[in-house]
Amino acid sequence: MTSIVTNTAAIAALQTLRSVGGELDQTQNHVSSGLRITQASDNAAYWSISTTMRSDSKTISAVSDALGLSAAMADTAYTATSAIVDIISDVKAKLVAASEPGVDKAKVQKEITQLAGQARSIADAASFNGQNWLVSGVPMHLAEAPALTDNLISSFSRSRTGSVSLDTIELDLKASSMFNSDGGGLLQKDPPPVFNELPPTVHDNFRPRGSQTHTLAGPATFGAGSNISFRLVVDRSPEEATGQVHDIAIDQAAVNAAIGSNTISTPDQWERVLEHVFANAGAPVDVYSTDPYNPSLPYLSHFPGSFTIATRETSGLVGSSIYLENVTTNLAGTNTMGLADTPYSNYDNLYESATTSFNGPFTLAGGIDLSFTFRMNADDPVSVTVTEARVNSTLGITTGQVNSADELAEVIRAAIDDTGMTDQGLEIRVSGSELTFTPNQDFYPGYGGKAAVFEMTDIVSSEGWSLRYDLDEIDLTTNTYSTDEYIRGVEHMLTLAIESAADLGSLKSRIDMQNDFAMELMDTFDAGIGKLVDADMDWESTRLKALQTQQQLAVQSLSIANSNSQGLLQLFN
């Protein structure tokens, strides 16, 4: 049907023209931008992936820049370290030459001084971007300092969950520092030796039976009604506060029964009287006024006129002691025959022990440790080692430093626990700066002759040779160290410097490989992103020509459709 109101042909042509125009605009955009996905509305999933990957590619580019900076620092440090290795080799050669007879050591020393100064100058100059891996400013000896590291950015990664992280390469600056402001660099001396900080252990194996020695106060005559009474306590100890108690009374009858007289004039007579009353009381003690191995001599040859009361250690108690208490007398002049006087000597619950003193803080570092061995009775010897790791874990530190006698006792106890003994065999007591090692009475009860046989070696350091001078302290003109000792020390420095150069060379190689990988990874990302969003220019250009032709045809179609209405109007003329 033909209508003068609605031109359906023109409408159809116009719709076609609009459709072709939209497709033509899109294709022209693809051609001009080179992308088939330029915004989220084109393809939300691919646009999101490509945008994220572009961001990661930029980050990896930044990582590559950081790797370039790290490579420059590694190159600087390696070059300087290699130069220092050559200098130390020259110093060693000079020292070897100086060991030859007739060589003027003063002249050689001048050369060594210049070489040492050059090594320091090179280390100071090995700075890049304000960082120097060969010189540090730690305010303590590096061996006593906590970890000293520098973290270099090495890579960027994204996990499946979308979380991102930067990986780093850790550089141990202690292993590269040639000099430190407070010592400890590779060309500087080791910390003070541990051995000199701990004196040898003093071992006391003096554990005789418990006894008291008194001076006889006499002579004395026991008349009718005369009496001396006291309480004899045998084998009282910290484990048994009561001990074995015997109430003793000495009267005229007892004296006469013991010596056939009522007057006591000599230590020998008093010995027999005491033996008599002790035997009647069932007291497990012995009395001596003469040497039991040589009765012609006093019991204490340097203290004549004395008598000793000693436990037989047959009471069944762990203690080994003698106590005289509640001494009373009605003899003339209140004479107690020496029983109430302060003992000349008193052996009370003795057992073996070993003692050492803490003379000041020391540090276990660089593989140095302390060790000792102890044995109880017939038990196998127990070897104990105190390491830097044990010090740090026990005291909750990282420096390996022991600052007090209490700290030393604490780490030794922990080291004993490490042996499986759980501190049961050895007890450590601290008094001021003194440590005393004794058998633990909970596991080895007994005093005097019943005490545990205790043996202990000195606490010694594993430290052998250590470097005692800096490179710039070498002086052949003095007798501080021999030429051989200097050669040994310089060889030690050379070994450390070579190891440092090897570490830096390995680091440089790793940085270069990581940088190459980062560049390849960015190329791979670009290729992957291109596959997602890049336009196929061959296809797009062909489509562009086709759409341009379709547009021309649509315009012509619209023109024809509009001309049809002119033919209809002519019918009414």
UniProtKB/TrEMBL annotation:
It comes from the Bacteria. Residues 490-572 form the Flagellin C-terminal domain. Keywords: Bacterial flagellum, Cell projection, Cilium, Flagellum, Secreted. Residues 4-134 form the Flagellin N-terminal domain. Flagellin is the subunit protein which polymerizes to form the filaments of bacterial flagella. It is found in: Secreted; Bacterial flagellum. Its main location: secreted. InterPro entries: Flagellin, Flagellin_C, Flagellin_N. Gene3D superfamilies: f41 fragment of flagellin, N-terminal domain. This is Flagellin. It comes from Neorhizobium huautlense. Transmembrane segments: none annotated. Belongs to the bacterial flagellin family.
